[in-house]
Design goal:
With 373 residues, the chain is α+β, with helices and mostly antiparallel strands. The chain has a domain at 1-109: Phosphorylase Kinase, domain 1 (2-Layer Sandwich). The protein has twelve helices and ten strands. The chain has helices spanning 3-12, 62-77, 120-138, 150-164, 167-182, 194-209, 212-220, 274-283, 295-298, 300-309, 314-341, 349-367, and strands spanning 17-21, 32-37, 50-55, 96-97, 103-108, 145-147, 227-232, 241-243, 260-262, 269-271. The strands form three sheets. It has a five-stranded antiparallel beta sheet with strand order 1-2-3-5-4, with helices on one face. It has a three-stranded antiparallel beta sheet with strand order 6-7-10. Strands 8-9 form a two-stranded antiparallel sheet. α3 runs parallel beside α10 (300-309) and α11 packs across α12 (349-367). The chain is globular, with a radius of gyration of 22 Å. Mean pLDDT is 88; it is low at 246-257.
């Protein structure tokens, strides 16, 4: 029996429900199911009868999942309808554990679609809502703390490792290992890694042409200044922001709460809001006439909408650029390590390759980003 069916009963008992799999937007391996109950069967427009049953990634600590739910509940209590409503089970808990020790949650379904190339109105709307989310999250006890960004410190450590053993040095070792696997008795079980090696080669060419080593060395020598740390989403990218009318634009911006949703809070943690701003803007394709500009300039209108609610400090603006550069380079480094070194298997291989392609496409521009830090 599918664990989703039995877990679902913690919320619905013996009520008639229909459970169908949904395509997960991320790569964490979480299982996502759409749950429909009466009267949805007879009235497909009944939004209150649709829910999303989702598992947390393996090895997620219960304490972290509970904290994520406290954050989501707090944000909704402060008046943020863009945050999914967490459903409480019949035992009074928002979390359920299946026999395999996997954590599950049930959320109210949030309608909408993600976009890769948002209209100016959509970008402003999303950044304004993100600023309101950050403002609300900062008031969650114990409140903001001053310190070095944990995300920045992790990235600096990864940069150090990448400089010690760069891609061009790892490439022949990885290729030899792949060839050994192809010639083994289990060759049929070894995925064809040639598309990945082709992308690794392309990334090496772009990285070297843009002076990537010098850029990373400069970042490694920079000081990690103290900044305000608070609850942030950390994984707020294009596929985790939904618009109800993704193809429509308007000369008049209405209440963002009526047409926007942030989904997937599982990676939320304590860090600087700059990490969310960089993550979201860097995941979008900028307008054609702005794609050659630095990130903050390419999305200047959206940044202005954010700052009308929550002004960015000088350090935060510099961190947005830093996170954009390191997110692109180290994002590629992560994918090459996961696929070529660790041999992780992803169900949607085509989406993985598309994600790597997008990072390579933006690598050159990211490496020439001016970082005033």
């Amino acid at each position: 029996m599918n664990p989703a069916n039995s877990v679902c009963r913690a919320w619905f008992a013996n009520d008639p429900v229909k459970i169908v799999p949904m395509e997960a937007s991320g790569f964490s391996g979480s299982n996502v199911w759409l749950v429909c109950r009466e009267p949805f069967f007879s009235d497909p427009t009944a939004q209150q009868s649709r829910f999303v049953l989702k598992s947390f990634a393996g090895q997620t600590a219960v304490a972290h999942a509970q904290w994520v739910h406290r954050l989501m509940g707090y944000l909704r209590d402060t008046g943020m309808p863009e945050v999914p409503e967490i459903m409480v089970s019949q035992t009074g808990s928002t979390l359920q554990i299946d026999p395999a020790d996997t954590l599950w949650e049930l959320l109210r379904f949030m309608p909408g679609n993600s976009v890769q190339c948002p209209s100016p109105m959509q970008a402003r709307m999303a950044l304004q809502a993100l600023a309101q989310l950050h403002t609300a999250a900062a008031s969650m006890p114990p409140g903001p703390q001053l310190g070095a960004s944990p995300g920045r410190l992790r990235r600096l450590a990864q940069i150090q490792q990448l400089l010690l053993v760069p891609w061009q040095e790892r490439r022949p070792v990885l290729w030899w290992s792949h060839q050994q696997g192809q010639s083994s008795k289990n060759a049929l079980k070894v995925p064809d890694c040639r598309p990945l090696f082709a992308r690794l080669d392309a990334a090496i060419v772009v990285f070297e042409a843009a002076g990537g080593t010098a850029v990373l060395n400069r970042l490694l020598q920079s000081q990690a200044e103290a900044t305000a740390l608070q609850p942030v989403l950390r994984d707020v990218w294009s596929e985790h922001v939904l618009f109800c009318n993704p193809q429509e634009d308007s000369q008049h911006e209405s209440d963002h709460g009526s047409g926007l949703a942030f989904i997937d809070f599982h990676a939320a943690g304590i860090d600087t809001p700059a990490t969310d701003v960089a993550r979201l803007l860097g995941s979008w394709t900028a307008p054609p006439n702005r794609q050659q500009l630095p990130l903050l300039e390419a999305w200047s209108d959206a940044i202005a909408a954010y700052e009308r609610v929550r002004p960015l400090t000088k350090i935060e603006r510099a961190l947005v650029s830093l996170f954009h550069v390191t997110g692109t380079v180290l994002g590629l480094d992560n994918w090459f390590r996961w696929t070529l070194e660790e041999g992780r298997c992803f169900v949607e291989r085509r989406r993985v390759l598309a994600r790597i392609d997008r990072l390579i496409d933006s690598l050159g521009e990211a490496l020439i980003e001016e970082i005033l830090i």
